[in-house]
Specification:
The protein is mostly helical. It folds into 3 domains: 1-77; 80-140, no CATH class; 149-217. It has helices spanning 10-22, 26-38, 45-57, 61-73, 80-92, 96-104, 115-127, 131-140, 150-162, 166-175, 185-197, 201-213. The termini are far apart. This is Pentatricopeptide repeat-containing protein. It holds the Pfam family PPR_2. Belongs to the PPR family. P subfamily. Keywords: Repeat.
Length: 223
């Protein structure tokens, strides 16, 4: 196309870069990315996100962060996908501090965290044994404009129980009613399994009775 003197559109550049990335030719994709700027083509958040995502998948986080900084420097708009992709990658390599700092760069209302953002943060904190940070995060959900359901809390409860932090799990479980949330069969199964695993039969039995009273059935095959 270029050899014929035809100038590719931004959509075409995006397709070509995606194709190069799928073939593990990210350097070729970057050449097109640089060529776009040289040709005066406007690069948008979608194109940046494509490259950032593939750098992260290729475990080239340094290059991904360099592109993110370029977005800031050249005042390109970032979106929640940009942040979620980088947050997930930072937690995977145990860079919790950097992930925390990156989350702080999400400017409201320009970029609003979504449920995926909070799932990434909660899982990342807990998997890196930063349970205090995980609980602080849960507290921020109360003042968030997002409407989180029981599934988000189930995810955190599950991680806390698996980490052996039953006191923190119990504390969070006890706040669900006050948050206007209704514990479901998954919630109870997570808590019962956690207490049973750590041989706290009194709480296991109490939760089982409460669960039965509310008409829930223990999900044996859940774990």
């Amino acid at each position: 196309m270029i050899q014929r003197g035809e100038e590719p559109s931004c959509v075409t550049y995006n397709i070509l870069m995606n194709g190069h990335c799928l073939d593990n030719r990210i350097d070729d994709a970057m050449e097109l990315f640089v060529l776009m700027e040289a040709k005066g083509r406007k690069r948008d958040v979608v194109i940046f996100n494509v490259l950032i995502s593939w750098y992260c998948k290729s475990q080239k986080l340094k290059e991904a962060m360099r592109l993110f900084e370029e977005m800031i420097r050249q005042k390109y708009k970032r979106n929640v996908i940009t942040f979620n992709t980088l947050l997930l990658s930072l937690f995977k390599v145990d860079r919790v501090k950097h992930a925390h700092e990156l989350f702080g760069k999400m400017k409201f209302p320009e970029v609003i965290p979504n449920s995926a953002t909070y799932d990434i943060l909660s899982n990342g904190y807990i998997e890196n044994n930063c349970l205090v940070d995980a609980m602080k995060l849960i507290c921020t959900l109360d003042i968030s404009t997002l409407n989180f359901g029981i599934d988000t809390y189930n995810c955190v409860l599950d991680r806390l129980c698996k980490a052996g932090e039953l006191d923190l799990a119990s504390e969070l479980f006890g706040t669900l009613f006050h948050k206007g949330l209704v514990s479901n069969v998954v919630t109870y199964t997570i808590m019962i399994h956690g207490f049973s695993k750590h041989r706290n039969m009194e709480k296991t039995n109490n939760l089982s009775l409460k669960m039965e009273k509310e008409g829930c059935v223990y999900m044996i095959g859940l774990f």
